[in-house]
Amino acid sequence: MIKDIKHWYGTGAPFIWLNAGAVAVSVIMVVGLLLLIAVRGMGHFWPHTVEEFTYRWGGEQIRLIGEIRDEERVSAQRLIDSGITLQDSEGEVTRYLMKIGNRDYYGADFRNIVAPLIVERHRPAELIAVERFEYGNFYGYLRAVKQAEAIVASGDAAWAALQESVERASGFRAEILQIEKKEIGSINYRLERLRLKERGFELKHALTPERVATIEQERQALQKEYDALSQKLQDLYQQIRRDSFIAEIQDGREAEIPLDKVVRVYQPNKMGLFAKLGFYISKLWEFVSADPREANTEGGIFPAIFGTVMMVMLMSVLVTPFGVVAAVYLREYARQGPVVRLVRIAVNNLAGVPSIVYGVFGLGFFVYFLGGNIDDLFFPEALPSPTFGTPGLLWASLTLALLTLPVVIVSTEEGLTRVPKAIREGSLALGATKAETLWRTVLPMASPAMMTGMILAVARAAGEVAPLMLVGVVKLAPSLPLDGNFPFLHMDRKFMHLGFHIYDVGFQSPNVEAARPLVYATALLLVIVIIVLNALAIYVRNRLRETYRALEH
Length: 553
Hints:
Blueprint: H1 2-10, H2 13-42, E1 51-57, E2 60-75, H3 76-81, E3 92-99, H4 103-106, E4 110-114, E5 118-122, E6 127-132, E7 138-147, E8 150-154, H5 158-203, H6 209-241, E9 243-248, E10 254-258, E11 262-266, H7 273-289, E12 292-293, E13 298-299, H8 302-333, H9 338-350, H10 355-378, H11 393-418, H12 421-429, H13 434-463, H14 468-471, H15 498-507, H16 512-552
Antiparallel strand pairs: 1-2, 1-5, 2-3, 3-4, 6-7, 6-11, 7-8, 7-9, 9-10, 12-13
Helix pairs in contact: 2-16, 5-6, 8-11, 8-13, 10-11, 11-13, 12-13, 13-16, 15-16
């Protein structure tokens, strides 16, 4: 028996099974983590049931209205020690985390309640849930709908009238958003360009009366457009602010909610399965396509998605040429010796430098030194306001390109090493120069390895947060780096990033309980973005590998 065990051990089979077990455990952990993130994050968008409780508190019975968001089992003695009066101090009781909303009336979104103190619990179909631009959700009973300070519907007719008013307000809001962000934003941008143009002529002592007249004429035309849009905007605001509704909240008070602050109104207790699925899909679409609101705890994260993808693409465009050129020089042209070996050691060591060090370097060198000098040379008319002398998309991309450069260099060198020597010799024997051999034969065959380096670079860069906090990422960016104004791609602008958004919502949010589900949802979306970017790069790499596989044989 012992001899058989020794023989089995000597064959190496235990190590194979050990490796297989380690891989299986790792896969299970990764899949489990992703499932946890998906369940916690994606479940946030499902329309939760709104309940009404009769609850004993402070010697009297009160009414509570809201959603049950979480529950846990806690020691009864622990609750008694915290000041809650319970008849029995033995065992455990259920404690619920209830979202009561109405923060502008109660001061808090959430409240803990314990099961032994619940007198009655039911789910009235008439309860409404309201998503707002401010103060979070609102819960209550609809009593009346008002237009221009006059009640137009109450009782059973109020719900249909409210739906019409909300739909009309949504149309006004879409038009307001178009005017504010697109049309007026474009006019403001052109006015600023005119101001900088005038200042540039002034610095060059070339501000002639003719140029002054031309600039003033353009400014007046833009101002006329601005005034017309401002008047239209004012009329739209008057239209959207005239509608409101009255609802009764849990303490019996009646609250009047203006519809210009309302995102959507729904009755979750009346919704069937298909209605809930439609609501869920609309919420998911809002999450990936809309701008954030309520200190990033509500709304969507489209600017963060756009900023992450744009930064990764710019980083890839910047890091790939530098990494390939460096690898080609080290492998094909540099004389192999102690200096080259020292350079390779330095490159490998750079891969282990903490990312925050790259952020400090990017801030000092790229932002303050390069950006400051660029402003002095090319944008003196904008000073003292910096153009490139401040963190932005370009400097963030360059910093991450520098951070991921060692990965690309090492991968490209390995790919160049795997190209058979006979391929090079055959090309040279046919009369090609070394540069032609490299460009037409060696680099194409090494391109799968280059793509592997880029895949690793994308995977690391997309999840980095620490250096980006110093070189361009902000909590909320009012304008995307890409728009319809010349030069269209504004690499001097700050941007949002999914990784920083997770940090901000998870650790800097004033409303932790409301923000927690969005942390999971954003984390899942960041993983999906990285997978999609890597999948595209892997597809290109596999196509290149199939194209040049025949040459390797």
